[in-house]
Specification:
The complex is a heterodimer. Chain A is built from 7 helices and 3 strands, in the order H-H-E-E-E-H-H-H-H-H. By secondary structure, chain A is of the alpha+beta class. Chain A has a 3-stranded antiparallel β-sheet. Chain A is globular. Chain B folds into 2 domains: 132 residues, Aspartate Aminotransferase, domain 1 (Alpha-Beta Complex); 255 residues, Aspartate Aminotransferase, domain 2, CATH 3.40.640. Chain B is built from 14 helices and 17 strands. The radius of gyration of chain B is 22 Å and the shape is globular. The chains are: A alpha+beta, B alpha/beta. At the A-B interface, helix 1 of A face helix 12 and helix 14 of B.
């Protein structure tokens, strides 16, 4: 993908005007991760109520792609059924960001947010819901991201 | 445009990689020399020649091939000694690189000489390789690691060193002769003079300085000096540790194995003489032989000329980059105090985005923390972009960078 295709309005807008930026008090899910190659950092806070995402926030620093991806992902999750959120895939994110042919290095930037989300859900399933069956699947998906 | 003191056009012909195109049809503009330099055909041929004609293990076998290989390998030691002005060839130890050389000192010298409550002093602009080995050592020994800070110009605040030296507990002051991020050239003489007066040992990380300026270890009067071949036209996987003979003789070995022994019995071993005591196992023979050719290449150009070429180019690049609005440049503005390294941040564009965008125009610059996260914290940034120059770079290439930065400006609507 050329830079002109990557850095379109949608990426710049989400980068410069991040949605759901911040932290939650007593969140049900807290997960933090970084991309050691780039130094992109991300922390996601999620509240689950009645099996739905009641609220979600993130903080972080990094390139436009990583931050726009996190910003957009929080929007995609808000109010959704927890089961639907569990199913969010790499393709969903990339399609929404309009990033279809990223090189391997930049792909990591775009998928850091999903990785944080998946690991967050994994911890939640194990620690709070004691649900090991679907947790293993989520963990596998997360580790397969990069 | 000023003519360079080096015949850059001729030099460029020696570097096959500079002829290639990247991103389909863009000439490669390689500006990541602080990370690793490109290699001239002479070095590549020397490595090839070893594998084609001399391949054998060194030091032990008596046949012709091994004799030739040993003699080429050992000739490099003499060349290195001469290049950085060291009198005793046995004080030159081959390592895998600067990182291994520093770890060798931290492990072999540090473990023997550093005790609880002792202090190791480093600086805020060190590469991780001159921080982490000392963290490991001081944590193990219950000693302390202290930092000389930097001022807003990117220079060391040397008064802070006095404070540490006054405690009487400092065992070693370890610092880079040139910062790999800011390009700052350290006032080496001043630090060494202070340390000598206090009876404290000094280690210099010359990974960024030896490739770019004349270095005279004998005159400097430090105790340990380290550098790498791959940043100075040589192959990866070869580095140098120099230390005074008296110190090396007192140090226990680092790695145990072949070549570093005199006699091995079931439960006891005696050590080989210097430098072999610190060169266990089969080394990077091809790499070391290639390094000799790299030193020849630089010697022919002359390090004073190399430095002048880079100063001129850096001055030009600084002028051009500073013309761009919303550009933040780090490090000294005085060209006599900085090497050919320029770190910068452009408006709110993250360095990774910036490096991606200029890459589309064939420009290779570095983005990230440059293995200097302590410095990034001090500068209060997550990352910077960095352009760094060498003997084959030109003002035209700086212009391509500037054009690429303008491209980024348009994309990010700055």
């Amino acid at each position: 993908m050329s830079s002109a295709d990557i850095y379109r309005e949608i990426i710049l807008d989400y980068y410069r005007n991040p949605r759901n930026f911040g932290k939650l008090e007593n969140p049900d899910i807290v997960k933090r991760d970084s991309n050691p190659l780039c130094g992109d950092e991300l922390e996601m806070h999620i509240n689950i109520k009645d099996n739905k995402v009641a609220d979600v926030k993130y903080t972080g620093k990094g390139c436009a792609i990583s931050q726009a991806s996190a910003s957009l992902l929080t929007e995609m999750m808000m109010g959704k059924d927890f089961d639907e959120v569990k199913k969010l895939s790499k393709e969903d994110i990339l399609e929404n960001l309009g990033l279809t042919e990223l090189g391997p290095t930049r792909l990591k930037c775009a998928l850091l947010s999903l990785k944080v989300l998946k690991y967050g859900i994994y911890s939640y399933l194990i620690e709070k819901l004691k649900d090991t069956s679907s947790a293993d699947k989520i963990k596998k998906e997360a580790s397969g991201l990069f | 445009m000023q003519a360079s003191i080096l015949n850059v056009e001729k030099i460029r012909k020696d570097f096959p990689i500079l002829q290639r195109k990247v991103r389909e049809d863009k000439p490669l503009v390689y500006l990541d020399n602080a990370s690793t330099s490109q290699k001239p055909i002479q070095v590549i041929d020397a490595i090839r020649n070893y594998y084609l004609n001399q391949n054998s293990n060194i030091h032990r076998a008596v046949y012709a091939l091994a004799e030739e290989a040993t003699s080429s390998f050992e000739a490099t030691r003499d060349k290195v000694a001469k290049f950085v002005n060291v009198k005793n060839r046995e004080e030159i130890i081959f390592t895998r690189g600067t990182t291994e050389a520093i770890n060798l000192v931290a492990y072999a010298w540090g473990r023997k000489n550093v005790e609880k409550d002792d202090i190791i002093v480093t600086t805020e602009y060190e590469h991780h390789s001159n921080i982490v080995p000392w963290q490991l050592l001081t944590k193990e020994k219950g000693a302390k690691l202290e930092y000389i800070g930097i001022d807003d110009n990117g220079e060391l605040i040397l008064d802070q060193l006095d404070k540490y030296l006054e405690t009487g507990r400092v065992k070693l002051v370890t610092f880079s002769q040139m910062s790999n991020v800011l390009g700052t050239i350290t006032d080496t003489n001043k630090i060494i003079a202070k340390c000598k007066k206090a009876g404290v040992k000094t280690l210099i990380d010359g990974a960024q300085s030896v490739p770019h300026m004349q270095v005279d270890i004998d005159n400097m009067g430090c105790d340990f000096f380290t550098f790498s071949a791959h940043k100075m036209l040589g192959p990866t996987g070869v580095g140098i540790l120099w230390a005074r003979k008296e110190i090396l003789e007192e140090m226990p070995p680092f790695h145990g194995g072949g070549d570093m022994i005199r006699e091995v019995h079931k439960y006891e071993t005696t050590w080989n003489d210097l430098p072999y005591k610190f060169e266990a196992g089969t080394p990077n023979i091809a790499g070391v032989i290639g390094f000799a050719t790299a030193i020849d290449y630089l010697s022919q150009l002359g390090m004073l000329s190399v430095r002048e070429h880079e100063s001129q180019l850096t001055k030009y690049a600084l002028e051009q980059i500073s013309k761009i609005d919303k550009m933040k440049i780090y490090g000294p503005t005085d060209i006599s105090k900085r090497g050919g390294v320029i770190s910068f941040n452009y408006a709110d564009i993250h360095p990774h985005d910036l490096a991606s965008i200029v890459d589309e125009d064939g420009v290779a610059i570095r983005s990230g923390h440059h293995c200097a996260q302590v410095l990034m914290e001090r500068l209060d940034v997550a990352a910077t972009s960095r352009a760094s120059f060498y003997i084959y770079n030109t003002e035209q290439e700086v212009d391509v960078l500037i054009k690429a930065l303008n491209h980024a400006k348009e994309l990010f609507k700055i």
